[in-house]
Design the sequence.
């Protein structure tokens, strides 16, 4: 199987089978052999792959690969574990490999495999010698040497086994036998053999059985350890680094710190021959009692530092968070005991010199699902994956949830997750702090001081937040935030603070019990409102040139603020939803924006005319983009009336502007023109550059539709220059698209294609699926008009896919369909992954 999953050339097979004298029919014979072999193997196992064949197999099904993996794992394992692994590996052998073949390739490969087997036997014997099993090994070694007289490592092992069994004379006889056997072959004994003889003669203490490392009290968990390969490997790397003497595993409650530390401690036994001690500090509440507790467990009759002295020991100090003040005592102990190492688990770091912190993250998603399925005895499915994600992939939460599958399905547990703190209870032998999610959170909460408890609860109002937001809404200080981060209740990623959802839900529960809950909620909503209004102004000025990254990060809190406003301040909610119009559009969230506006308008009969007008205008925009022009026109008319009543000229101009596309689409270009001509001077008067650009562009479209191509080109050219001069790439894309329509109507196909391509390039660069859809549709019409039917059909399919993906309805569709005529349209596949990049590459590359 050496070449499995690799292509082997036909020439290589011929060489292996016949060497330098292949028959003339060698190629045919190989094909016949392959055909026969395929009949014996499962389908698709033996594949034809130029320049030969590939045997496709699952590595887990190949004994040889399993053997090699077990041998490799045993190299760094504790002798007891290594011996077990190697015995498992050797049990896979069934006689001499490839013995039934006489061909040269089989003899070479068989010899290589036999060497691997003998090396594994020697490795296993080495592990057994380290475990003190010399007496049981002597007979086996003598038999192995009889079969393999030139393998010196076996002779070294036999001599050592005899010597350790108090059979010194026989050990020296074994050396003489080795020398005679080698002399017969014209070989000299190796330096290792000669050195061992000298050591035996002088009774070198180095030949004694190595002292077994001591597991002083490490528990052996009764359940399997699932996942965590990467974390365990990293912790072991630190644990074997002589420079790291104090390693603290930190993380929120339930993240699996203790289980991970125990797994690491078991594998670090070989590095600490004087013992590994587990110290459970859960019942210890006084920092001054930490050192006495360790001394008591060790049975020390003298001060702990004197008792340990230079012993190579590892202390696993578990659940240190409630006695972190004992950190300096640990440092003193380390200073007095040069070979002592400390592995600590705590929900916060010790903040001592020389400490290395390792933050234990939640489980990876696949490991979380595997843990749930292992504990619940279920097969993976979508509900389990969603449940683990909702539980933040925290091991304790997953184990508690899995225990509930005796009465609830994963889908039913998902439905009840709002009651997670009381729904999940643990096994009877669990410590009280791990008996439920509530107990776990209360344990962490009780360790906070009053200032930290207040801030922790108030931060429950956020989905995530910046330092500025925490300061404005919660009067937070850097020190207080830092303390919650240190205690694993708050996470910092980049410049944003967040909580695991389980922790956030508990924080919000604590907030709901406070008298200041409505004050904090209003501060939060006001803060998001101010951000949205500021961003709206910037987006209006830039025309969507830069998607507002800050609002992207705040989307979770935007939804929370809107939800609160729906219940407590509809006026604020209307203004907030409307201020986000360009944001909803730029992020393909049209349906969400429209839903918020519709819901809040239905509740806001008593809201201010200004707030209602803003939300009505936003709803009108969403309706128009979605192709509901009658609804869009009606809403714009209503918004216009309200804006005139409150005297808001900015709102008046944009309502007039918003009416125009619907009027154009429904065949009333003259009224659209009048609306735009009324809006344009207001835009100019207010210094509204975006309004001026968009109005000029629409006027150019109307002029071209009326047949005045010269005036239309002038206005569209002006709108392109205005957009370019102000860095408005979205506006530039819109104007190029309109110019493309003009040239398409005029029959100037090359000019139309140039304009549509320019618009598409701008749309691609700003990631605007809406404008990409329009420009790709325009290029489809150009291709159709030019007789490129296949290209036109493919481009039209892309346009319809983009239309569906981004939730829009193309205005001016009739213009393009007229060009497409009787072209055979390609069926539009169901929505899947985004086609924006694929469509753009094809449209611009053709």
Sequence:
């Amino acid at each position: 199987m050496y070449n499995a999953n690799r292509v082997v050339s036909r020439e290589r097979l011929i060489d292996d089978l016949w060497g330098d004298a292949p028959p003339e029919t060698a190629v045919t014979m190989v094909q016949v052999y392959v055909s026969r072999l395929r009949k014996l193997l499962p389908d698709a196992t033996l594949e034809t792959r130029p320049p030969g064949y590939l045997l496709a197999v699952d590595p887990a099904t190949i004994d040889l690969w399993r053997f090699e993996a077990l041998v490799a794992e045993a190299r760094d394992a504790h002798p007891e574990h290594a011996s077990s692994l190697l015995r498992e590996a050797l049990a896979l052998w069934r006689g001499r490999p490839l013995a039934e073949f006489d061909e040269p390739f089989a003899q070479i490969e068989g010899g290589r495999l036999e060497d691997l087997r003998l090396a594994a036997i020697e490795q296993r014997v080495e592990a057994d010698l380290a475990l003190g099993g010399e007496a049981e090994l002597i007979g086996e070694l003598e038999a192995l040497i009889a079969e393999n007289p030139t393998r010196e490592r076996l002779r070294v092992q036999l001599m050592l086994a005899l010597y350790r069994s108090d059979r010194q004379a026989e050990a020296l006889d074994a050396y003489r036998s080795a020398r005679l056997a080698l002399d017969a072959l014209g070989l000299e004994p190796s330096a290792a053999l000669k050195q061992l003889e000298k050591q035996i003669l002088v009774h070198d203490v180095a030949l004694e059985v190595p002292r077994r490392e001591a597991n002083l009290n490490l528990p052996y968990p009764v359940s399997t350890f699932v996942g965590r390969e990467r974390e365990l490997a990293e912790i072991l790397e630190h644990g074997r680094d002589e420079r790291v003497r104090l390693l603290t595993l930190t993380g929120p409650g339930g993240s699996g710190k203790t289980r991970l530390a125990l797994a690491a401690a078991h594998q670090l036994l070989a590095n600490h021959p004087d013992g590994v001690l587990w110290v459970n500090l859960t019942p210890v509440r006084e920092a001054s009692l930490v050192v006495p507790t360790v001394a008591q467990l060790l049975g020390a009759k003298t001060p702990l530092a004197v008792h340990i002295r230079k012993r190579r020991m590892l202390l696993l100090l578990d659940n240190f968070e409630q006695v972190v003040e004992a950190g300096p005592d640990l440092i003193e102990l380390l200073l007095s005991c040069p070979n002592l190492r400390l592995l600590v688990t705590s929900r916060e770091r010790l903040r001592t010199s020389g400490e290395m912190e390792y933050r234990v993250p939640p489980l990876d998603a696949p490991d979380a699902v595997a843990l749930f399925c292992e504990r619940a005895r279920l097969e993976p499915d979508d509900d389990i994956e969603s449940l683990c994600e909702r539980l933040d992939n925290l091991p304790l939460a997953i184990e508690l949830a899995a225990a509930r599958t005796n009465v609830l399905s994963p889908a039913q547990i998902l439905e009840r997750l709002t009651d997670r703190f009381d729904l999940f209870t643990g096994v009877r032998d669990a410590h009280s702090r791990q008996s439920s999610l509530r107990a776990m959170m209360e344990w962490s909460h009780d360790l906070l001081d009053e200032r930290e408890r207040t801030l922790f609860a108030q931060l429950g109002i956020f989905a995530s937040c910046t330092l500025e937001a925490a300061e404005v809404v919660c009067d937070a200080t850097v020190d207080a935030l830092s303390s919650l981060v240190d205690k694993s209740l708050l996470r910092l990623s980049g410049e944003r603070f967040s909580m695991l959802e389980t922790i956030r839900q508990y924080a919000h529960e604590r907030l709901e019990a406070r008298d200041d809950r409505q004050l904090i909620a209003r501060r939060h909503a006001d803060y998001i409102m101010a951000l949205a209004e500021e961003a709206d102004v910037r987006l209006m000025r830039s025309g969507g040139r830069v998607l507002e990254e800050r609002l992207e990060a705040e989307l979770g809190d935007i939804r929370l603020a809107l939800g609160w406003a729906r219940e407590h301040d509809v006026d604020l909610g209307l203004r907030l939803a409307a201020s986000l119009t360009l944001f909803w559009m730029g992020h393909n969230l049209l349906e969400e924006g429209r839903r918020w506006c519709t819901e809040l308008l239905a509740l806001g009969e008593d809201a201010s005319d200004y707030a209602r007008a803003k939300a009505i205008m936003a709803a009108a925009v969403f309706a128009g983009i979605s192709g509901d022009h009658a609804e869009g026109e009606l809403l714009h008319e209503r918004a216009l009336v309200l804006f005139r009543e409150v005297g808001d000229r900015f709102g008046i101009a944009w309502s007039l502007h918003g009416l125009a596309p619907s009027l154009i689409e429904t065949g009333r270009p003259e009224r659209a023109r009048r609306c735009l001509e009324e809006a344009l001077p207001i835009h100019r008067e207010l210094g509204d550059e975006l309004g001026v650009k968009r109005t000029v562009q629409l006027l150019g479209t109307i002029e071209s539709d009326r047949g005045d191509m010269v005036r239309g080109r002038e206005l569209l050219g002006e709108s392109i220059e205005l957009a370019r001069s102000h860095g408005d790439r979205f506006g530039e894309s819109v104007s190029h698209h309109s110019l493309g329509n003009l040239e398409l109507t005029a029959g100037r196909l090359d000019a139309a294609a140039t304009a549509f391509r320019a618009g598409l390039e701008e749309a691609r660069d700003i990631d605007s699926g809406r404008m990409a859809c329009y420009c790709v549709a325009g290029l489809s019409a150009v291709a159709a008009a030019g007789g490129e039917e296949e290209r036109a059909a493919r481009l039209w399919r892309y346009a319809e896919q983009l239309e569906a993906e981004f939730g829009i309805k193309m205005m001016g569709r009739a213009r393009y369909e007229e060009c497409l005529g009787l072209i055979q349209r390609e069926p539009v596949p169901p929505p899947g992954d985004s086609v924006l990049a694929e469509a753009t590459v094809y449209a611009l590359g053709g």
User: Anything to note?
Assistant: The longest strand covers residues 340-346. The chain is about 65% helix and 5% strand.
